[in-house]
């Protein structure tokens, strides 16, 4: 990404959004490229510290302004209007998301955009369903006391987001933040700025007061991300992204002892038992490894397959990988997209090289696909499957975040569990078996925040979501977000 002069260029310019209006900044806009073609697609303003100050100040004013007078029912109604607003502008959101990510419109159209709207609906429901505890407490004089919990908004929340599922992951945090009465300053990824700015328009049109939802654009270090996470006016930080970035943000949050909610990286294992429905397992693991070109935190990059079905499973997975070919994102038949950036493509290709150096058998892929002329400048890699790597290889140990996985055979359930758990990460797993008892046993033994059995990425938004070990801190979703998005006060009244 390079900085660019915006003049004389017929490109959309993406601005910050502060206190209900678009805001420019003193720094020159930077170029954002369409990953499918490599061509510059938008120019994006980059926040300087003054812009972040403005955004945080607007959020602070709004916290004390008319937003604080919204009743639960009024906030729920506002969230539903936002959900409807996203659906009403579905085509705009779809075009923006596809332009920023290069992902197939078919995928964004059935996953990213509908989930963006659904996130607001589910937290509108949550407002109505939220109760607090109360206790009648005996006292020596016999009159007793009433204790009850009172939840108040946490305050000004910084929302720092990644690029892989931009609208989906950002709204997953913004919706509960607003549901429980907070105000936000959102910092989308520098690679995917567009849908956040579009959402600002929708939120304004939904009648949410100015300053409740603010957007600042830019990069991480020495840019919007760092300025926002270090800003003393921010009361709490919710972040989705790499574990390494989470470490930097946590250090910033230590100043002022501010709470964090983190959804971080993963190196997820799939376990395929010989008694499973092999076709379903191969289809499920293929989806989990290759959907969104492997750029899903919940994706499977390590697959352990019980030895008797190893070859049959591998053949099915190989066929599924080889059916995925690059295509123009808006072509209705396209099911496979590029990686997000040249930098990320180079990182993924580095692991492809490393796998060969470490002695992997490349079952399929391993490089850059043949591309039609129109896509030749894009950031494409082949779906790739390896076997034969030692568990000590960096390809097995580190998150790659590309369309690739390694398959290894196992002989005993305990061995599969042990290998799955041999990771500093603990985000998700997918287990394939027809043995219900074993399914429960293995789901309980794997050290993760999310365990799927005979499925993957099947989400009920009321359930807890988050990672164990270095994959996160805290749980979001349904009632679980209350811990982070509200402050719980106990009121004790002597009767
Ligand atoms: P990233 O950590 O590079 O960037 C995420 C965001 O943090 C961006 O907006 C970036 O500008 C900002 N940032 C970077 N450095 C910063 C700093 N020092 N201070 C403040 N902000 C900073 O992550 P990414 O490459 O955008 O996303 C991919 C990663 O996200 C993968 O590791 C993936 O597993 C993870 N992820 C996790 C989940 C989950 O739910 N656990 C979901 C999606 C993605």
Terminal Cα separation, in Å?
Answer: 64 Å
- What are the segments in which pLDDT stays under 50 over at least 5 consecutive residues? 1-8
Level-2 CATH architecture of the largest domain: 3-Layer(aba) Sandwich
- What fraction of residues sit in β-strands? 15-25%
The biggest beta sheet is recorded as: 7 strands, mixed
> How many helical elements?
15
Rg result: 24 Å
CATH homologous superfamily of the largest domain - what is it? Aldehyde Dehydrogenase, Chain A, domain 1
Notes on the structure:
This protein has 2 domains: 13-264 and 472-494, Aldehyde Dehydrogenase, Chain A, domain 1; 268-460, 3-Layer(aba) Sandwich (Aldehyde Dehydrogenase, Chain A, domain 2). Mean pLDDT is 96; it is low at 1-8. The longest helix is centred in the first third of the chain and has 25 residues, at 105-129. It has helices at 49-64, 72-88, 90-101, 105-129, 166-179, 194-205, 224-230, 243-254, 278-290, 310-322, 342-357, 394-397, 413-421, 436-445, 482-485; strands at 13-14, 16-18, 21-23, 30-33, 40-44, 134-137, 145-153, 156-160, 183-187, 213-215, 236-240, 260-263, 268-272, 300-306, 361-364, 384-387, 404-410, 425-426, 428-432, 450-453, 468-469, 472-473, 486-494. A 7-stranded mixed sheet has the order 15-16-17-14-13-19-20, with helices on both faces. Strands 10-9-8-11-12-22 form a 6-stranded mixed sheet, sandwiched between helices. By secondary structure, it is α/β, with parallel strands linked by helices. It is globular and about 70 Å long. The chain is 37% helix and 21% strand. Strand 2 (16-18) and strand 3 (21-23) form a beta hairpin. It starts with 12 loop residues before the first strand and ends with a strand. It is built from 15 helices and 23 strands. Nicotinamide-adenine-dinucleotide binds at residues 160-164, 169, 187, 189-190, 219-221, 225-226, 229, 240-242, 245, 248-249, 263-266, 297, 399, 401, 427, 467, 471-472.
């Amino acid at each position: 990404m390079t900085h660019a002069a915006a003049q004389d260029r017929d490109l959309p310019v993406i601005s910050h959004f502060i206190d209900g209006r678009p805001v420019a900044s003193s720094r020159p806009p930077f170029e954002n490229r369409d990953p499918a073609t490599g061509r510059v697609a938008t120019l994006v303003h980059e926040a300087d510290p003054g812009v972040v100050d403005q955004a945080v100040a607007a959020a602070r004013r709004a916290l004390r302004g008319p937003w604080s007078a919204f009743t639960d029912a009024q906030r729920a109604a506002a969230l539903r209007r936002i959900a409807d607003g996203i659906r009403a502008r579905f085509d705009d959101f779809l075009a923006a998301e596809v332009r920023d990510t290069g992902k197939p419109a078919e995928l964004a159209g059935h996953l990213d955009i509908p989930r963006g709207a659904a996130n607001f609906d589910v937290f509108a429901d949550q407002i109505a369903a939220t109760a607090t505890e109360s206790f009648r407490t005996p006292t020596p004089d016999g009159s007793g006391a009433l204790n009850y919990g009172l939840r108040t908004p946490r305050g000004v929340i910084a929302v720092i987001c990644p690029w892989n599922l931009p609208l989906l992951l950002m709204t997953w945090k913004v919706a509960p933040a607003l549901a429980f009465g907070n105000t936000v300053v959102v910092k989308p990824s520098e690679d995917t700025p567009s849908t956040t700015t579009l959402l600002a328009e929708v939120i304004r049109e939904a009648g949410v007061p100015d300053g409740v939802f603010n957007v600042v654009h830019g990069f991480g270090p020495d840019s919007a991300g760092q300025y926002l996470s270090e800003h003393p006016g921010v009361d709490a930080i919710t972040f989705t992204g790499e574990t390494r970035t989470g470490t930097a943000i946590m250090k910033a949050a230590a100043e002022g002892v501010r709470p964090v909610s983190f959804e971080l990286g993963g190196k997820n294992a799939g376990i395929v038992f010989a008694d499973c429905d092999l076709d379903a397992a191969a289809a499920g693991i293929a989806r989990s490894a290759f959907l969104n070109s492997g750029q899903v935190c919940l994706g499977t990059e390590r697959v352990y397959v019980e030895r008797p079905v190893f070859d049959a499973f591998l053949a099915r997975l190989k066929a599924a990988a080889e059916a995925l070919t690059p295509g123009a994102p808006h072509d209705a038949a396209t099911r496979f997209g590029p990686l997000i950036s040249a930098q990320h493509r180079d990182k993924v290709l580095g692991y492809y090289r490393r796998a060969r150096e470490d002695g992997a058998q490349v079952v399929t892929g391993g490089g850059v696909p043949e591309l039609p002329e129109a896509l030749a400048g894009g950031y494409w890699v082949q779906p790739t499957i390896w076997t034969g790597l030692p568990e000590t290889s960096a390809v097995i140990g580190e998150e790659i975040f590309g369309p690739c996985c390694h398959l290894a055979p196992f002989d005993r359930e305990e061995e599969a569990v042990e290998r799955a758990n041999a990771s500093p990460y603990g985000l998700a797993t997918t287990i394939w078996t027809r043995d219900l008892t074993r399914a429960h046993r293995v789901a309980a033994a794997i050290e993760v925040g999310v365990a799927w059995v005979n499925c993957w990425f099947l989400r009920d938004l009321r359930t807890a979501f988050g990672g164990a070990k270095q994959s996160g801190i805290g749980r979001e979703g349904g009632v679980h977000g209350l811990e982070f998005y509200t402050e719980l006060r106990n009121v004790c009244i002597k009767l």
